[in-house]
Amino acid sequence: MLEECFRVLKPGGVLRVGTPDLAFLVNLYREDEAASQSRTQIEQEFLEYFLANEIKDRETNAPVDFDTYLINKFVRAWGHEFIYDEKSLRHMMTTLGFAGITRCEVMESEHQALSDLENIDRKPPGHIALETIVMEATKPTR
């Protein structure tokens, strides 16, 4: 998908990608009783909301409130084939020839046309920003 975006963008065009963030999932998993730092309130709310609302047939697919069930569902849901973190997404964009690669906050961009794009109302406040990595990159004008 990123290769095709690079191909069709005009020189100087900007790509914005918002996708699930692997770093969020890893952090969520590592924050348990044995971790040095407990989950933040929003992380705990996310876990509880996801398990209560996003997993059908809880008795079979998530019999207990473990982060493990959230992560497995999260990775398999919505047709994802790969979950990026900033390091891997930045590497892929660089490899394809993008320049000016920056990480952005959800709903924010230096480019007015790319601001306020994410559908943040589909989940409780703060959840989309917590689970999403947003990167922007420019096709060089060469």
Write a brief structural summary:
With 142 residues, the chain is an alpha+beta fold.
List the helices and strands in order: HEHHHHHEHE
Mean pLDDT: 85
- What's the overall geometry? elongated
**Terminus-to-terminus distance:** 22 Å
Question: CATH topology of the largest domain, anyone?
Answer: Rossmann fold
The number of distinct helices, counting runs of at least 4 residues, comes to: 7
Domains, number: 2
The number of distinct β-strands equals 3
Name of the CATH homologous superfamily of the largest domain: Vaccinia Virus protein VP39
List the SSEs and their pairings.
Layout lengths: L1 H7 L5 E7 L1 H9 L10 H13 L4 H4 L5 H10 L9 H11 L2 E6 L22 H5 E7 L4
Antiparallel strand pairs: 1-3, 2-3
Notes on the structure:
Strands 1-3-2 form a 3-stranded antiparallel β-sheet. The mean pLDDT is 85. The longest helix has 13 residues. The radius of gyration is 17 Å and the shape is elongated. The chain is α+β, with helices and mostly antiparallel strands. It contains 7 helices and 3 strands, in the order αβαααααβαβ. It starts with a helix and ends with a strand. It has 2 domains: 80 residues, Rossmann fold (3-Layer(aba) Sandwich), CATH 3.40.50.150; 46 residues, no CATH class. Helix content is 42%, strand content 14%.
